[in-house]
Amino acid sequence: MAHENWYRNTYRRNLVDMHIEDWDERFLSEFDPGCYVENLKRAHIQAPMVYLQSHVGHCYWPTKTGHMHGALVGREDLMRQLVDRCHAEGMYVVGYYSLIYNTIEEDRHPEWRIVSRDGTSQRQRGGRYGHCCPNNPEYRAFVTSQITEMAEYFDVDGFFFDMTFWPEVCHCAHCRARYLAETGRDELPGGNLPSMDWNDPDWLEFQQLRIRWMGEFAALATETAKRCVPGVSVEHNYANAVAGPSHFCNTELVNDQCDYAGGDLYGDLYNHSFTAKYYYNVTKHQPFEYMTCRC
Q: Which end of the chain is more exposed for a tag (fewer CB within 10 A), N or C?
């Protein structure tokens, strides 16, 4: 069981991005949990967020459902060592998992891809990461299996789910089928982004459906985590409620699935000021979490 409500009086937190491929055997080959923890102690960190997986989809545990990062072969418990060492030093630990952004699973399962009207994925058009559609039932089952595996392998106090939004409007078979089932129409409305007609009632209806679908997907992740780990906190990255375009659908329905509001922001002073006020008022519990790479 996690340390329930650990976040109530925990203000000094840390995250080191680890979206790291394994096509070169040198990547993560020198990762040292002991050195990592010593640096956290030097910075007086109370709650590190530790990558258990990343946008590239490589898992930092001996997964049965996904792909384990090659650097962990022969030292499969490397990241669990880090988590346990943090706890031994009196720190709380939040486990990071990337939803929707998952390059290796998009490669391994082309049928899971988010695709545009012409059937191409964002990565095929030059994008950096692969995107998997949250309306695909096989991908949804994969996500629940991954969360279950993490919960069984790691002792964490919280989960952080990143990228809980639509990076583009998906036209895959499952989105079209769901739209047909819920509206009786088989043709998805609107053109290609960013040229959507926000005065078109059919597009506005579709947008509301996409908002609800994303909220339901967030709920799936939250409910799975809390079922597997009693007392665990859950935070979905809520940055795009203020920093992303409307078609991302990172709305209050996503925030409803969070124990506290938070997200990574990189804007100017006015953006910081507005976001702090917004998070303060929408979070279920204080403190909200403000993530930035510039302290």
A: C
